[in-house]
Amino acid sequence: MAADSPADHAAGRTAGELITAVIVDDHAAIAAGVRAWCSEAVPPIALVDAGDRLADVWTGPGADADVVIFDLELVPRRPDFGELRRLVDNGRRVIVYSQHTDDATAIKCVDLGALAYLTKREGPDHLVPAIRSAARGEPYTAPSLSGALIADDAPGRPRLSQRETEVLRAWFVASSKELVAAKLNITVKTVDTYIARVRVKYANVGRAARTKSELVGRALDDGLITLAELNDTTTAL
Amino acid sequence: MSEAAEEMTRAQLRHGLRLATLLIVLGTVCGQGLPNVLRHLGSYPVPLAQLAAYAVLASVLAGEAVLLLRRRTWGRLLRQIAVAAVLAASVLSYVTLPEGRTSTSVDWVFGAANWVGLVVLLDRPLRAAVAFLVAHDLTALAHLVTIDPNRGDLARFATGSVTVIGLPLCVAVVAAVFNSLSAAAAAARAEIERVRVAEAVAEESHRRRQQRLAELSATTIPLLEGLADGSLRPEDPAIQRRCAIEAGRMRRLFAETDTVANPLLHELRHCADVADRKGVVVELDARGQWPTPPVAVRRDLTEPVLRVLATAASRARIAVVGGADLVSVSVVADSGEVDVPEPVTRGVHVETVTNDDTVWMEVRWQPTPQQTTQPAALQAS
């Protein structure tokens, strides 16, 4: 995401302040790995480990964390969309961290208002930027989510421009914004802009959530997208 | 070997046997039974009962004649009714038979009903015919023992039974042998068929192996020969790279003949496996659905992956994005400089982007309608 967008200040956070995140994951190794990545990040990110106790996200130090890193399947094969919705409805900024790569789940999480959807194959290269983006209230689109978005053929999906699809596709396959920029002859910042526009379009459809409406409002304020472009969805035939 | 051919053989034999048996039985029942009934009509207490019994037997024979002409067999229900009718006719005839006349020419039904029953049971297992004949004979015996039989009566009954049971039994045995013969003939045909199929398969796989060998001879065999005669040094990185590429090609070649839902992904997995064994972390991700590309196109699509993976140092990502009009295979790895392969088929294009030592090679194929075979469903890695 656009790391230096004016939205940083809109989210009421200055660059120097320490970001705190809380992780809910029943696998101790995952939590330990994420803790290591967070402490090695520059600047470091403080991590609260809630284990598999969802209550610790709502009370204690977890309640004040800027970002919730949420394992969607605390109970195997039963994705907890209900808990995700409750967190989002309470204004929490959620990164879904899942071991599954199926597209429908990824898109559903985004529709519910998660700011990022990462698969556990996607390591610190994506998780750390995702935490920083989420702390600012901004979405982060990892390659796996990009793949889900380009393969999305649901009737209510937003209409993406050719260039947006091209960038999303290239980001999915190359997994490196520098390579995408070099290939398409644009800057990394422009790559970010196209990906951000896609997320704004997705935030504008489906279920209403605070994180999503903030995203749309900010994108309109910043001129990232126009109202006409937003209202141009595939269902409006 | 088809069940139909086996059934045909059996049907031909059965038909001939049925026809022959029916003719014998008609001869017996009409030529021997009918004159006896008519000649002794005056000596029966209820002549009408004897005529009725005869009519039942005649109608069962008529039924068999109709079925035979139509090349049909007795249905399960119809067969049960016919057997019951024949036994009932036998019982009716004995009930109204003058006492002490068992197994004489007055007792016409003794030598007629056995044959009629046999006709109905000819294509059943032997035990059915035996059970029927025994039941018929016991009916006659029951009539005999109601009076106090003398030695002459018993001797007559015993000798009569030999003919009444023995002759139809011979025919039934022949029918059983025919059945087993036809099964053997069908089995022999099946065996011939199986051997022919095996020969055809062996021939085809031999042809395929020769073709594969021809394909490998251009690249793999010179490499192996060079390694064998010492002209190529295994410690040379360029040779190591060639070996890695050839290993990938061989894996791909073996994978090409597998029957899988998505051959492109299947072959990519095999290509990735070679790098995986070297300790390179390979991710394979796919999105979308695409028509199955022909083998030549699949080789063009996988060749850049082989080249890039051959020198990948630590990590690689293979991604496939497909649709009805475009299939794209991308490989990103820390491979340094890689030669760009030249696609062989039309409609395939390779693009390369390099950033430091990271290489991104993308192959795109635009299917034209005649090139595609059947659609392949998506299988995410």
Automatic annotation (TrEMBL), chain A:
GO biological process: phosphorelay signal transduction system; regulation of DNA-templated transcription
InterPro entries assigned to the protein according to its UniProt record, in alphabetical order: CheY-like_superfamily, Sig_transdc_resp-reg_C-effctor, Sig_transdc_resp-reg_receiver, Tscrpt_reg_LuxR_C, WalR-like, WH-like_DNA-bd_sf
Residues carrying 4-aspartylphosphate: 71
GO MF term (any one): DNA binding
Keywords, in A-Z order: DNA-binding, Phosphoprotein
UniProt KW Phosphoprotein keyword: yes
Segments forming a coiled coil: none
Annotated ranges, domain Response regulatory: 20-135
Range of residues in the leader sequence: none
This protein's name: Response regulator transcription factor
Natural source organism: Nonomuraea longispora
From TrEMBL, chain B:
Transmembrane segments: 47-69, 81-97, 103-121, 128-145, 165-188
Superkingdom of origin organism: Bacteria
Protein name: Uncharacterized protein
Organism lineage string: Bacteria, Bacillati, Actinomycetota, Actinomycetes, Streptosporangiales
Alphabetized UniProt keyword annotations: Membrane, Transmembrane, Transmembrane helix
